[in-house]
Amino acid sequence: MVIRVSALTSQLEQVDASVPNTSHAETGWLARPLTRRSLQRFPIQVSPDILPREAWLTAMKERSLGIHGDSDSGSTASFRVELNSNKEYEIQDESGQKLTNLPLMLQGETEARYFCDVIEHLARFALVKQLTSPSMEEPEERAAEPFATSFSIQIATRSGTIVDAGCPVQVDHSEKQWTFELRVENKGDKALYLYVYDMGPLWQIEGIDFGTYQVVPPRDDDRGFSGTVKKKLKTIIPAVMLAEGHRQCRDIIKVFVTSQPTSFDILELPRIGGVAPEKKTSSRISWVDDDSLAQWAALSFPTYTSLK
Prior knowledge:
Elements: E1 12-17, H1 36-39, E2 44-46, H2 53-62, E3 79-83, E4 89-93, H3 112-130, H4 139-144, E5 151-157, E6 162-164, E7 169-172, E8 180-186, E9 192-199, E10 205-207, E11 214-216, E12 228-235, H5 239-243, E13 248-258, E14 296-306
Parallel strand pairs: 2-3, 7-14
Antiparallel strand pairs: 1-12, 3-4, 5-6, 5-8, 8-12, 9-10, 9-11, 9-13, 13-14
Helix pairs in contact: 2-3
């Protein structure tokens, strides 16, 4: 199943699945929406060479974006904006590395509003990238949390390499065949709900099942349930990156597991500079006040696709 057909989009395809997909949840709890206050966790430092700098800073404040001030010497900016020798606005990460696959922004031709659109997109991407449940952060905490031990999620490559969450997945660029398999095992006695997203090199976040979830029932030999789900997937290097001479790209396979049906549509992003799809979940998902029902976990698999 092709998620998005576009020359400018890193494509993640579901080649096969052992359990049919379900539709959006009709009941359950709703993933808490991203708030602008959350985006302030990723402060932006604007070079004094940016003119008119004050207008840009004012526009950022109106968006509630975090600003790394000139006097904030004790902290590190998540993003830095510089003016390079070609009179282009260049965005760097916290280590000073230039971010790639961004729209061209020329001095004197880029409005503050458009610049803020780009920066907000990057901050939202960073927020989802860092999103994790506390019980998944440390092995000791995971062992002490019943929900975190109720499942196992790994990736298997075509060569047979088994990769755990947080470890790099190395695959070859392939247009025709799957390159890795996501394996999920329900070790508990209640159904789990699986959501898989691709965080691509063009700064897009897309659900591989179009934002729906997949039920992972517990093992039940009498009913023929194995308690496992396997998804054959593949990543490819976007055509626009191949045209520029890139031979590798990085995706992050973001996996959410919940104890109740919900929606993570609020996390989705188009490729940077694109138009976000219309969200339709708010009228179909209801809140559950009992926090004990809202058990969830988030895992990340950094995936590197290389051209032979």
